[in-house]
Amino acid sequence: MAIPFPERLHSRAGPQPVDRARAGIIPWTIYAVTFAATAIVCGLIWDISWHRSIGRDKFLNPAHITEYIAAVVTGISCGYLAFKTTWWGTTDERAVSVQFWGFRAPLGAWVCTWGALSMLVSAPFDNWWHAAYGLDIEILTPPHTLLLLGMTTIVIGAMMMVLAAQNRASDESSGDFSTLYAYAGGCLLLMVATALLSQTALPNGWRSVDFYKVSAMAYPVVLVMMARTGKTKWPATQAGAFMMLLSWGMSFILQFAPATPRLGPVYNPITHFVAAPFPLLMVVSGFALDLLVKRFGTTRGWRFSLAAAVVFMVSWIAAHWTASAFLLSSAAENPVFFGPSQFDYNVRLGPFVHQFWNQPRDATGNLVFSAYAAGLGIATLYAFISARFGLWFGNWMVKVRR
User: Fold this and answer.
1) Can you give the pLDDT at residue 173?
2) Predicted local distance difference test score (pLDDT) of residue 172
3) pLDDT of residue 348
4) In b/e form, how buried is each residue of 171-198, taking b as 16+ CB within 10 angstroms?
5) CB of 220 within 8 A of CB of 393?
6) CA distance 76 to 85
C-alpha cells in the first residue's frame, strides 16, 4: 500500500525534536492568537465607545480595523499551522493535532479559524446591511451577531490552544503557558462582560436584583472553569485581574482621545470618547473561588457547585454593594474611576447619575427586603447551575492535549 504523501515526506525528515510545549517553549502561533484575542476585546470596547461618543461610524473606522486585523492575524497564523502540521509536521506535532477535511492542526486552531471566517464574512454582510437598511437602531443585527460570535470563537480558540500546551507541558515548564492561559481567560471574561454591558456595567445598577441574577448566570461558569483548569496558584484570580486591567486600561486611554457627536440629539456635549464603566470586580470572586478549590478540591461535583454558588454570591454582593457607593460619589469623578464621563452624548445628565437604579422599593420609598431575599435566592440558583456547567467544562478541559 502506498504511503500518503505527508507521511512519506515526514519519514525522510530525520530525527524529530521533542514537543515544544513539554520543553516550555511557546510557539509564535500561540502568541499570534493571543494577540488577536487582545485586539478583539480592545477593538470591541473601542467600537462601543465610538457609538456612544460619535454615533455615526464608517465601515473602516479604527475600531473596526483593529477587529479585522485580529481576524486576519488569526487566519494567517492558524492557516500556516494547519499546512505545516499536515505536510511538514513532526511526529509529536501530528500526534497533538486534530484532522479536519484532510488537514491537521490543534483543536484550538480550528476553532480560531472558524471564528476568523465568521468575522470576515460578517464584514461585507454588515456593509450590505447598512446600504439596505441604513444606520442600526439596535446592536444585535444579524451581521453584528455573526461578528460577535466570530470574535468570541477566536477568544475561545486562543484559550484552547494555550490550554492544550499547558496540559502537555511538564510541571517545571508550565508556568509561562499557565499565565498566558489565565490571560486568555481574562479576555473571555471581558468578552462576556462587554456583551452584557447594558445589564451589568454601570455601578448605578450594582444593587439591583437583576444585576445579581445576570451576573450569577454569566460569570461563575468561566471563573469555576478557570479555577479548575489553570495551573498557576491563583488562576481565577489572575483571569479576573487581567479582565479588569484590560477593561480599565482601554477606558482610561479612550477618555483622553478627542471625539465629537455626529448624530442628534446631543444632550451631553462631550469632547472626548466616553469611557466604559469601571470594570466589574471580578478579581474578588475569582480569589474566593480559588480559595474554595484549594481548600476542598472539586471531586464532589454537586457539593462543590453549591459551595461555589454561595461563595460567588457572597463575594460578588460584598464587593459590588460596597464599591458602588464610592463609584457613585463625587470622589469618583476623576479619570481613574470615570464618574459621569461614562454617560453617552444623548443622555440628559441629572441627579440620577449619583443614584441607585431598579431597587425594589415600596410606595414610601423604603427597600423591600423580602423582594431582595427572593431575588438573591433565585440568583444563587442560577449561580449553582452556572458553576456546575463550569465544573463540567473544566473536567473535560483538563484532559485536552491537542
Assistant:
1) 57
2) 55
3) 87
4) eebbebbbbbbbbbbbbbbbbbbbbbbe
5) no
6) 14
Identify residue 359 by its one-letter amino acid code: Q
Grid cell at residue 350: 441629572
Contacts 24+ apart (CB under 8 A), 13-17: 13/88, 13/90, 16/90, 16/91, 16/92, 17/90, 17/92
User: What is residue 6's predicted lDDT score, i.e. its pLDDT?
Assistant: 44
Residue type, 241: A
Angle subtended at Cα 53 by Cα 49 and Cα 57, rounded to the nearest 5 degrees: 80
Q: What are phi and psi of 256, to 5 degrees?
A: -100, 0
Q: Which residues contact 88 (CB under 8 A, 6 or more apart)?
A: 9, 10, 13
User: Residue 183: what residue type?
Assistant: Y
Cell output for 145: 451577531
pLDDT of residue 93: 77
Alpha-helical regions (H) of 255-368: 282-296, 301-327
> What does the alpha-carbon distance between residue 112 and residue 109 come to, in Å, rounded to a whole number?
5
* Cβ–Cβ under 8 Å, residues 262 and 251: no
Output DSSP code: residue 300.
S
pTM for this model (two decimals): 0.88
- Strand segments (E) across 123-231: none
Cα(177)–Cα(321) distance, rounded to whole angstroms? 35
**What is the C-alpha to C-alpha distance for residues 102 and 16, in angstroms, rounded to an integer?**
23
Q: Are 162 and 184 in contact (CB under 8 A)?
A: yes
CA–CA separation, 381 and 261 (whole Å): 43
Kindly list the averaged pLDDT for each block of 10 residues, start to end, along the chain of length 402: 41 46 72 94 91 78 89 92 87 82 88 89 73 61 80 93 87 74 96 87 91 96 95 94 96 91 86 91 97 90 94 97 93 88 85 85 79 92 97 93 82
